[in-house]
Give the backbone structure.
Amino acid sequence: MAGTPHTGVPESATGREARRSGPTALRILVGAHLRRLREARGISREEAGYLIRGSHSKISRLELGRTGFKLRDVADLLTLYGADEAERSALLTMAEQANAPAWWHDYRDVVPEWFEDYLGLERDASLIRTYEIQYVPGLLQTEEYARAVIRQGHEGSPAEEIERRVGVRMRRRQILLSAAPPKLWAVIDEGALRRQVADSATMRAQLEHLATLAELPHITIQVLTFASGGHVGGTGPVTILRFAPAELDDVVYLEHIAGAQYLSRRQDVLPYQHLLDQLVVHARPSAATPSILRLLAAGV
């Protein structure tokens, strides 16, 4: 596509994969196509920004999919880039779909802005790989376990706020129950499973819930036991998201106390892919997970 502005939108972007993509993935797809069209024409970000009454940084945000689209801006850029009618129609349709409001907009009071991108990426991912060292991954938490973890993290917050945060976590879990759920591959440190964040009944129910989920075909859970030693790790929780459209790069998500980091450049993503690959090797096989979890549950 980089060779000419008239090569069209790839079939994977306009066909079945793009139709399955949610607003966040579509936003990134549209941005990537706009960047390729601009570069093929030899147009600078400054020139493109001037056309839409903005700056080069606005073009950068559009091309990275980090902001919503004004359809007029997209239309003006496509005219500047010399897009043909088929390409123009496809990208404008995708841009319009990318502007669809997400369910978490109703929870803006408890969802920080830096987490909104993750919610969109998580919903649109076809594969979610994650490593957790402190808690059970959010997508795999029971309601009572989630409530206990959220209370600890927001001590002193009103009960209504706690319940709204729990509601967000429970809504996130629905992607695992959808008609076309993502593949989830989680490596959980044994310490996270043994950490008593709630009463014994809640912990037992959480471990039994994990054992049940581990038997589902689209969910793989491995336990990094204490016996695995210190061969790998040395870092906090890591999540890598992969998407069905081939045009979308993997995204590494690293959460901090008051913010998050999103990595998508290949040289930044590779070390984390290698880390998760090593964790998979050193963790117990997934076939052993149900028995490990039920043994832990019996000891709570």
In short: The domain at 11-98 is CATH 1.10.260.40 (434 Repressor (Amino-terminal Domain)). Residues 1-20 have pLDDT under 50 and may be disordered. Strands lie at 127-132, 183-189, 219-224, 238-242, 251-256, 259-263. The radius of gyration is 21 Å.
